[in-house]
């Protein structure tokens, strides 16, 4: 059940409309940074393997098989080590993910403002960011006044007032998007880690109990 829940959360994060709209973008020959998906794929793998390992543990407990329970414990140790490694990787790269996406947006925004921007897809990339995240412009003065003179990039005039009052620039929205998603990934990883610790303890207790009972 825990594996199924983790797998469901990971698949939801993987196919979330906001992240897929942004991370599938391509600016010329350059693809949007998809480092974020590395953590998602790890969660998907952990969830799927947990479901299989859970079945292995249940079957081993029913059959009172020390071999299956020992294999169950070994698989849990390996999964736990992989999850700790993934957690360390995510903590180290949590700021870099949003930074890479912001740099990709800034490059597209600069191309969209150029006179020859119609020759590339910078405008389309920027408009996708603006429509998906409900924002307009980077975190600077140019971004704040962009709605006033580029209706093709920011069609709503009220964005100017909104930028001043709520600071709804795209840099802030990108930070909020990925920090929220990484927060969910972190919660899921902690829940899985706690469950795994209890599973390892209980499987060893059961395995030892079966071994001791077989003596008599």
Provide structural commentary.
The protein is mainly alpha-helical. 79% of the residues lie in helices and 2% in strands. A hairpin with a 2-residue loop joins strand 1 (26-27) and strand 2. Helix 4 packs across helix 5 and helix 6 (141-149) runs antiparallel to helix 7 (159-166).
Rg from Cα: 24 Å
Pick out the low-confidence regions. Answer: none
Order of helices and strands: HHEEHHHHHH
Q: What is the end-to-end distance? A: 35 Å
* Side-by-side strand order of the widest sheet: 1-2
Q: What proportion of the residues form beta strands (DSSP E)?
A: under 5%
State the total count of DSSP E strands: 2
Backbone shape = elongated
Q: How many H/I helical runs?
A: 8
Mean pLDDT: 77
Share of helix among residues? over 70%
Keywords: Adaptive immunity, Cell membrane, Disulfide bond, Immunity, Lipid-binding, Membrane, Transmembrane, Transmembrane helix
Family: Belongs to the tetraspanin (TM4SF) family.
Protein name: Tetraspanin
GO molecular function: lipid binding
Structure at a glance:
The protein has 216 residues and is mainly α.
Features:
membrane; 216 residues; 2% strand; two-stranded antiparallel ribbon; lipid-binding; mainly alpha; Tetraspanin_animals; cell membrane; Tetraspanin_EC2_sf
